[in-house]
Amino acid sequence: MLTSVLVAWLLAAPPAPNQAASGVGKKVTVSLKSASVQQVLDVIAEVSRFNVVLFDEPAVRKHVFDLEVKDKPWDTLLSEVLKTSGLFKMEQANVIYVGTEARLKARKPYGGTNKRVSLELSGARVSDAVAALTVTGRVELSPMNGGSLQTRKVRNLPTDFIASLLSEVSGASADAPADVPPLGLPEGDPKCAAGDVAVKTLQLTAVSTGTADPAAIARAPDGRTFLLLSRGCVGLEAEAVRHIRRDEVVTSSGWVLKLGAPATRAPSSPPVDEKLEDE
């Protein structure tokens, strides 16, 4: 079936030694020691605002970088990383895929038509990420099970595109054995998400934002996961979820759950503005 969207793909080899890099991007200043390819690409993604996706495999993991970079255009740095590591890139819209030539050539392109959102993950199950995307995008997505835990950021992409991307990079699929689903907040149910767990013991693993319906996934010490919704309640003390934004959740009593960090409580914090903040 033909679509109205034309997807342009570019498979680019590392530049030849005498080939000048374009140097048109925003500039990077960074100092890294024994950095992995992923760590360098994370810096490039943050500066360029592109989604940079690395296909991780043994041929990629062997490369380590010591970098002292000052005011270097991000696209020049990317070209140098590709040249040094022998990796290739493939571009689609605001996504740059990086991997071995064989891995990129084997890819099957996919598109997306749903609402655009942003998603940040820290050791999250793909099934949980898709649950959060379903809420934020206000669209039903096919459940995904299995696959490797994901730690990544994606910005301004359709929810169905993100779900396909997560399936591709993690190995998750609709056919895999079902994970334990996140505990939601059924309509009319007075109980809170994580109703038998103290908020301070929860670990944030996923945050999906971009609409009036941000959502987050929190994991309890026993491994259970819970879907947190803005203005819902959470924890033993039934604290309200006041904010879900980017990489954090803030509760009514001042607990702040941040991706990849222990829960903290702001001392004598002022009352939280209840206006929704998605981005």
**pLDDT averaged residue by residue:** 83
The ordered string of helix (H) and strand (E) elements is: EEHEHEHEEHEHEHEEEEEEEE
Structural class by SSE content: alpha+beta
Helix content: 10-25%
Oligomer: single chain
Number of strands: 16
Main sheet characteristics = 5 strands, antiparallel
- Percent of residues in beta strands: 25-35%
- CATH class call of the domain at 10-105: Alpha Beta
CATH architecture of the domain at 10-105: 3-Layer(bab) Sandwich
Physical arrangement of strands within the biggest beta sheet: 8-7-9-10-11
> Which shape, going by the Cα principal axes?
globular
Radius of gyration: 20 Å
Task: Produce a short descriptive summary.
The chain is of the alpha+beta class and 279 residues long. It is built from 6 helices and 16 strands.
Q: What report would you give on this structure?
A:
Helix content is 20%, strand content 33%. The protein has 279 residues and is α+β, with helices and mostly antiparallel strands. Among the domains are: 96 residues, Phage tail protein beta-alpha-beta fold (3-Layer(bab) Sandwich); 55 residues, no CATH class. The chain has a five-stranded antiparallel β-sheet with strand order 8-7-9-10-11. The chain has a five-stranded antiparallel β-sheet with strand order 12-13-14-15-16, with no helix packed on it. A hairpin with a 5-residue loop joins β10 and β11. α1 packs antiparallel against α3 and α5 packs antiparallel against α6.
